[in-house]
Every structure is written in C-alpha cells, then in structure tokens.
Amino acid sequence: MTYLQFLAILPFIILAAAAIVVILLIAFKQSHTVIQVTGFIMMCGVVFAMWYVRDTLPRQVPPLLVVDGLAALFTGLIIFSVLVVGLLSYIYFEEREENPKEYYILLFLATLGSAVLTISRHFISLFIGLELLSVSLYALIAYLRNRNNAVEAGVKYLVLAALSSAFLLFGMALIYMETGSMEFSAIARAIDASGMSILFVMGIGLILVAIGFKLALVPFHLWAADVYQGAPAPVTAFIATVSKIGVFAVLIRFADAIHLQQNVLAVTIITIMAIACMLVGNILALMQQNVKRLLAYSSIAHFGYLLVAFLSGNAGVGAAVFYLVAYSITLLSAFGIITLLSTARRDADDLSGYRGLFWRSPLMAAIFTVALLSLAGIPLTAGFPAKFFILTTGVQQHRWLLVMVLVLTSVIGLFYYLRVISTLFASPPLTPVKERTLHPFFYVATYASLVVLMCLLGWLGVYPGFVVENVRAFLSF
Amino acid sequence: MILVWMISILLIGGVACWLVAQRDPLACKWTALVAVVAAFLLPVVWYLRHTPVVDGNAWLIDYQVNWIPAFGIGFHLAMDGLSFVMILLTGLLGILAVLCSWREIREKTGFYFFNLLWTLAGIGGVFVAMDLFLFYFFWEVMLVPMYFLIAIWGDFNRRNAAYKFFIFTQTGGLLMLLSILALYFIHGQQNNGNYTFDYFALLNTTLGNNATARWIMLGFLIAFVIKLPMVPLHSWLPDAHSEAPTAGSLILAGLLLKTGAYGIIRFVLPLFPDASAGIAGWAMLLGVVGIIYGALLAYAQTDLKRLVAYTSVSHMGFVLLGVFSFNQMALQGVVMQLLTHGVSTGALFALAGMLKERLHTRDINQMGGLWTAMPHMGALAMVFVMASLGLPMLGNFIAEFLILLGAFEVNPVLSVIASLGLVLSALYSLRIMQKVFFGQIQTITDPPADVSAREWIIMASLTIAIVFLGLFPQPVFNLVSGVVEQVVRL
C-alpha cells in the first residue's frame, strides 16, 4: 500500500479507531459525557481527514476499496448523520437507567460498516461492511432490553437480516461461479465478454433481494415498521439514515459497474419494486397512529422515489445524492423531536402525545412541521428541490409511469403528513410539563443543532444551487 | 426591484408579526397592516411616478437574476398590465383582509397574521413570476399558509375542509409540475440543450397540436381549473370557503380563484395555442355547466357562506367561457370579471363575516328582518347583491355582458344558455336579501349593532371600487389590451 492509498483510507481508519478508543475509555473512565465528547471529537477527526485528503482523490486501493467522489459524498453524509445521532443519543440515554457505554462502540462500528460499504468495489468488502453494520444493529435495536418491543424488534431484525445475508452470499457465489471474480470491474469485463447467463441473472436477483431487505423495499419491507417502533429513537434515526445511505451507495456503485440499468429484466423488476414501494409505503402510512411507524412507512415510500432516480443510471446519481441529503436532514430533525419528547419509560411515538405541541413548545413544533413539510416535498423546504430533481430525471428518461405514480402517491402522502401537522396545531390537552433533570448544556446543544437542521432544510429549499454544484463537482472525480 | 421589495416586505412583515405578537397583539395587527399597505403602495407609487404607456406587449418592470443556474432556473419577476391589475386587486383585498381580522381573531394572533401575509406574498409572487419553476414555487407558497388559516382558525368542520383544499390543489400543482418539466425538456431539445425554465424562452417552443402538446397542456389546465374551479373539480371550494375565517374566505374567493384564471390566460393560451384551441369547445361547455350548476346550488343553500361560495362557481364559469372564446371582447370581459368578482364576492364574504360576528350563525333561516336593526349594513349588502346579479352601473354587469357578447360570436347556443345564468343569479341574489334583511323579524334578545367605523372603511372602499369599475372600465381595458391582443393573435 502506498502512502497516498493510506491517506485515502485515513478517514476510515480514524472511524475504526473511534470504536477502539471508546472501548479503552470504558476500561478507564466510565463517564457518559467523556465518551460522548471523545466520540464527537473522533467524528470531527474523520471529517477533517476527509477534508485533508480530498485533493488526492479518487484513489483505488486494490483489490477491495476505492475512494472516489461518490464515496466521499456518502461518507460525509454518513458522518454528518452520526454526529446528530450521537448528540440525540446523549439526551436519550442519560434519561434512562441503562448503561449507555457499549452503545457508542456499537454505534461507531455500525457507522464503520456503512462507510466501508460506500468505498467497496469487491464482494468481500461489501460483505464485511454489511455484516459489520447488521451485527451492530442487532444489538443496537434491542439495546433497551427490558422493553418488550425492543427485544421483539431485535429478534425480528436478526432473523431477517441473517436470512438476507444468506441470500447475498448465495448470489455472490453464483456470480463468482459464472465470472470467476468478485471484483465489480472484473465481473463487468466478464459479462461484456460472454454475456449474462441465467445463473448470473439469478445471482443478481438474489443480491437484489438482500439489498432490498436492507433498504426496506417492498416486498422486503415487513421488518421496517416493527423495528422502527421497537428500537430506541436515536437508533431508529440511525437505521433510517446511515444504514440505508451506505447500502444505497454500494447499490449505485455495483449497478454502475455492471450497467444494471441497461438490462431490461432488471429495470422491469426494479420499476415494479419502485411502484410497489411508493404505493405500499404511502397507503400503509395513511392510518398510522404511531409516529415512528408512520415514518417507517414514509421512508419506504421515499426509497421508492429514490429508485426512480436510481433507474436513470448515471444521470440520476446527482439527484439521488441530493435527495438523500435532504431526506437525512429531514429525518434527523424529525427523530430529534421524537427523542426530545421521549420520556424515561417510553418513546414519544403516539400521535395523541403531539396534540397541540405548537402551543406548548412552538420551537419543537416548528421544527417538526418543517420536517414533515419537507418529507411531503412542499416548497421552501429541502424536500421540494429533492423531489423536483428526481422528477426531472424521471421525465428526462421518459419514465412516465413511474413519474405519474410518484406524483399521485405524493398526494396520498400529503394526507398523512398534514394529519400529523394538524395534530401539532390542534388545541392542546391539559398535560403536566415534563420535568427536566439533565445538565442544560446538552439541551441547548440539541435544540441548537435541531434549529440548525431546520435552517438547513430552509436553505436547501430556497437555494439548492450550492449543494447541487458541489455534488456535481464531487461526482465528476 | 420594486417587485422583489413588495414580496420581501410581506415575507419579513409576516415574521415580524409573529415576533411582535408575543409582546403585544395590537402592535402585531398594526405591523401587519403597515406591511400590507407598504407592500402594495410600492407598485402603485411606481406606476404613478412613471405613468408608462401600456400598448402592445409592453412589460412595465422586468427583473431577473440567476437562482439555480445548473438547471436553468432564474429568479425572474416581470409585470405587465394584466399583472398590474391583479396586483392592485391583491393589494386592496389584502388590506381589507387584515382589517377584517382585526377583531375576529383573538387567539394566536401572531401566527395568524404570519400566515395571512405569507399567503399574500405567494399570491403576489404568482402574479409576477416569469420563470416557471419560480411560478410553481409561489403557487405552493400561497398554499401552505392558507391551509393553516383554514385548519387553525376555521369553523367547526375546519380540518376536513383544509385537507380537501390542500389535497385538491396539490394534486393539480404536481400535475402542473410534471407538465412544466416536460415542456422544459422539449424546449431544451429543440434549442440544442439550452435548458431553461424562463417563460419568454419557453414561449418559442414549437408544439403544434399533437398528443404530447395536448397532455402537457392538460397538466397545466387541470391545475388551473381546480383553482378556478371548473365544475367536476369544484368540490373543495364550498367547504374551504365556508369553514375559513372571514379573511380566509375573502382571500380564497377574491384572489386564489383568480390565480387559476390568471394562469390560463398567462400560461395555457400563449404556450399551447393550438392545443388549447383544440379543447376550447369542451372548456366552454364545462364553463356553461358551471354557470348553471353553481347558480342552482347557490339557490338551494341555507348557509350564507356556502351560498356565496356557489355563486363563485357560477361566476367563474363565465371566466372559463370567456377565456376559451379567443375573442378580444370576451377576454376583456374576463379580466373585468376577475376584478369585479374579487371585489363583490369579497364584500359578500366580509358581510357574512360581520353577520356571523354579531349573530354567531351562518344559517340564513335564523336570520331575517335585520334591516330594522342594521339599515346601513342592509344598504351595503344591497349594493353587492345587485352587483352579483349583474345590475348595470356596477362592474359585474360590464364583465358578464362583454363575455356573453364575445362568446356569442363563437358559440351562440352556449352563450344563450349561459345568459340563463344571469336570470338564476337574480334568483339567488334576491333570496339573500329577502331571507337576511327582510321578512319575518327573528326574536333576537339584543339587536345587533350596525356597521362600525372599521367596517365602514372596508365596505366603503369595496363599494367605491365596484362603482368605479362599473362606470369607468376603460382604464382597466387600456392596461390589459396588450395582453389580450397578444392572446387573441395566437
């Protein structure tokens, strides 16, 4: 490995080191605050390393890894999300009896897994990243083990994730058998030379099943609602953003390498999945009374929208990245509010608990409202340009069916977002105000960061040009 | 730059209202009033100082900067005669909307005026945006605050009404967005990859009357006729109008419906001349159906605001009929109808609001004989009821007369049926007067107070406006003649 190659993967090494540092810290000083602050500094270190090496990109690190603009974008987004999730976790766990120390080890390992996915160009690194992510998530989901829902959710995720890993491995094996390689580019060369055999197509299909499971695409979405509901709120935010971003990144890279979007069969299948996602996600969310489940179904729908951009191939990558940026910021602020409202006994996931929030706590309700409007894709919020860019790629590629379904299901989606919003603004019930015992600094910090997220949503909504230009610049690496 | 100021004053004023209201609700009301007056005095003062000659295709103000250059999106505002008269209407009704809410809104005042001002900003933006992306942007900006106005300060059934309003309009809006995108790509491909959302550039797209053009045109048209509303798509309107607070109804009827008509005149006809000529027959037919259907349903209502809402359906049918006549006279009438309907229906909603404030009901069966207690209000109501039924000397007469005259040249049968609408309008209008102000005096314990000074200001300005439009319509015709000629030439 040359020096430059080492430099290129430096951010990921720091990320791996973060987990080890936390382990060592626990041995010496068991303080939640210290771990939190150290974790924060390490994540800043990752960002800094990324910034430092940006000019040396893109760089291949054969055979497993490649660090290019796409990887940098997605890793940056992942680290950003983890920073917010970490901040939310502090408040969330400090209010509870449970010892949160190991939580951060798992959190950073899962992040590492997700980040490795973004830079993998080989089945081995893909599998390692995915397993690192999944195995950490099993524990994270069931972290508050004395809650019934948590254990149920953890086991559900464990069983289904293990199953999907099996699918993935089988698919990889089939492809290896047909092409004799596990490297994306080598696979691409092999099929260019000899065409796709039936076994190869089957392998792709099995891999798509596994990836569909991780992204909660219909029909592999059955775990989503239960896991979102059962997991602690910050972990749910993590699943909804970080884990999906990583998997989506590797999907883009793999599809790009083997030109998946030029295969008629694959396109048909993915089109059907996208339509199913949009329909099922939006329709199932309609009558939900549980905010976390509602967000679960809404994220299924949102990944349906993302698939529309994905199907456009290279033209859609920019739109997809922008969509993921907007989507992550939006979901993080929504889950931030859920975390802030959660009590020691249960998460604030019942819609009736949000009744009249605007009159009790205007700031929180404003943030939540902006997040929901952004999910609905209303102008002045980031969701609008995001949806607009996806529609643009869809129309450009003449995918009229997908685009029409997207528009019509967005209208269905409006209904349940508006339902939550009008609950926020309804006249409030008389409830005692929750008592606060924590150090106010962390509340101020959380509030401040949520306000920053809200402002980001507004800024992206009104002036998306800056991000669009930068995404383009990164992708042209 | 004037237009940018106009919109930003409203946006900033809205935020200021919200902040001020925490200290002092009264100051918040004054802030709102000052902001609205200032925002709309700007274009008026500008006009008086420059007194530009409006002829042909003259654009009075044109302001353009880049916004998202990567996608060819510009921040392009421009104003011609048509935009100017619509801005005038927005200003008048905006000021009155603030005055109407002065006493009606007692709680959450700050947030209320925030929403009111942002809606007005959106409407103002819609009338001057000359970039299709920007237009869509403003189109939605006026929607969300309006939703809140209905959903928070509305009447008993407000949540459903607000949903219905939002979902109907949003469906149309998204279809329009798709059409905008399709047009964007077609134009880009015709012009060697010069992708832009600019209205003036897109005007040069050659589309003809093939299936593609028709679909794209329909996307725009559906968005606009939902707002207008055209008959099968009107069902959001009675609910939204009757549940909204007074100022909300005023803005809905007076301005939001006009954005639909404006959109058809500004975008559908110039962008797709051939395709819209192709469906003109159907559109005129649906317009006539709307006239008759709205009038009949208005006659059957017992809820005063619902009644007025259905009269809007009927009057907007005239707009649809006139627009698709492609006839100079009819189009002049349409613009006139937009203004006069805004004023007269706005006044009727304001009256309904005043009655509700006093009697706490909208049911006309529980009213009656109110002239004895409130002679002034009765007289004012008489003026606007007469305007609504199309009495000469008042603006609506000129508008509807011109539309019928223009449409008669194109399609005599439909025009004859449409004129039946005038007869029906006399029926429902007189029924309002008869039920509310004449007839059996209801036993009310304390007689309601007559018109207050603030209400006098509101009603007087509307009365002056409607009489002026009825006697001197020529200035309006001069202002819009350029746009009208341009559309007719196509």
Briefly, what is this?
Chain B: GO terms for molecular function: NADH dehydrogenase (ubiquinone) activity; NADH dehydrogenase activity; ubiquinone binding. The complex is a heterodimer of chains A (477) and B (490). By secondary structure, chain A is mostly helical.
Descriptive overview:
The complex is a heterodimer of chains A (477) and B (490). Chain A has helices at 3-8, 10-28, 32-53, 69-94, 101-119, 123-141, 148-179, 184-194, 198-215, 222-230, 233-258, 264-285, 291-311, 314-341, 357-360, 362-376, 383-396, 400-425, 440-462, 465-475; strands at residues 59-61, 65-67. By secondary structure, chain A is mainly alpha-helical. Chain A has a domain at 260-477. A two-stranded antiparallel sheet of chain A has the order 1-2. In chain A, strand 1 (59-61) and strand 2 (65-67) form a beta hairpin. The model of chain A has no long low-confidence stretch (mean pLDDT 88). Chain B is mostly helical. Chain B has a domain at 293-490. Chain B is built from 21 helices and two strands. Chain B has helices spanning 2-21, 25-50, 81-104, 109-128, 132-141, 143-153, 158-190, 199-202, 211-227, 236-243, 246-271, 273-278, 280-300, 304-323, 328-359, 370-373, 375-389, 395-410, 412-436, 453-471, 474-489, and strands spanning 61-68, 73-79. Chain B has a two-stranded antiparallel sheet. In chain B, strand 1 (61-68) and strand 2 (73-79) form a beta hairpin. Chain B is globular. The two termini of chain B are 31 Å apart. The model of chain B has no long low-confidence stretch (mean pLDDT 86). Chain A binds chain B through residues 359, 373, 378-380, 384-385, 388-389, 391-392, 395-396, 403-404, 407-408, 410-411, 414-415, 418-419, 422, 425, 463-465, 468-469, 472, and chain B through 67-71, 108, 133, 136-137, 140-141, 143-144, 147-148, 151-152, 159, 162-163, 166-167, 170-171, 174-175, 177-178, 181-182, 184-185. Chain A: It is an enzyme of class 7 (translocase). Chain A: It holds the Pfam family Proton_antipo_M. Chain A: Its EC number is 7.1.1.-.
